[in-house]
C-alpha cells in the first residue's frame, strides 16, 4: 500500500470487523470521523484520543501536542494530560530525542496540559522518528460534543485558515523549492504558522456557545473532514469553494506543487455545524478568531460548488502531503 491513511472503505472494514466488546460505560465510540471516545465515570466523562505524526520531519513535538489536543478540543473539552510514545531509528542521538521532548514540554506548558507518561525507544522498525500521543480531557457528563451530531440545515463554519499546517510543513521541509516563488516575508509567515495550529480556544468557545457537531480538520483537508462529519451523522453537505478561507501564501505553495489546498492537512482549523452560524462567526471574530460559513448540512450527498458547478465529493484518499512529486 502507499503512504497515507487507509481509504474509507478499508478503514471502515478494519474498524467495524474488530469491535467485539462494547461496554455500557463508553458513551461515544471510535468510528469514521469520530476521533475521540467518551467514557462515563459517573458525574464526569473522560474524553480520549490518539494520533501519530508521520508526515513531517520538523516540529514533531509541537505538531504532536496540538493535533492530539485538538481532537479533544473538538468535543468542546479542555485537554488536561498527554501520554507520549517516541520510536526513533537507529543512529538517533540523545540530543535529538531531548529536543523533541523539549518541544512537547514547551507546547504543553502553553496550554496547561501535563505530560503523564509514555514510552521512548530506539528501534530498527522505523527509518525516521515516529511520535504518537494520547490526550485525555474531562467533561461534565453529557456535555462532550461528538462528530456525529450534525443536523440537516446546520450552517458549516470553518475557523482560521485552511491548510495552514500543510503550508508550514511543506515550506519547512522544502524551503529551497519555494525561495523563488515566495517572498522572504511569505516564507517567514509560513514558518510561523506553527503557532496557529491549536484549536483549543475555538473548541471551548463553540462548546459553550452550543453547537451540534465539531471536527478538527487534519489529514485529508476540509473535504476529508466534511466527508467524515456527514458519514458519522448519516447526512450530506453543500459547500462553496469561494467561501473557503485560504491564505495567499498557501495558494502559492499549493499552486507550485499542483495540489489542492482543500485536501491538504489542516490542523489549526475547526469544522463546526450549528443552527446559527452567523452568531457563532460573530462571537469567534470578537474573540480574535477568523471564521467563515462555507455551506450547510444537507440530507444526502457531499457537494462542492466550484465556479458555479456542483461536484460530488468522493471519499477521502491520501492527503495531498503524500501526493507531491518532486
From TrEMBL:
A Pfam family per the record: AIRS
Start and end residues of each PurM-like C-terminal domain: 152-302
Annotated SUPFAM superfamilies: PurM C-terminal domain-like, PurM N-terminal domain-like
Signal peptide (from-to): none
GO terms of biological process kind: protein maturation
InterPro entries: HypE (IPR011854), PurM-like_C_dom (IPR010918), PurM-like_C_sf (IPR036676), PurM-like_N (IPR016188), PurM-like_N_sf (IPR036921)
UniProt family annotation: Belongs to the HypE family.
Record-given protein name: Hydrogenase
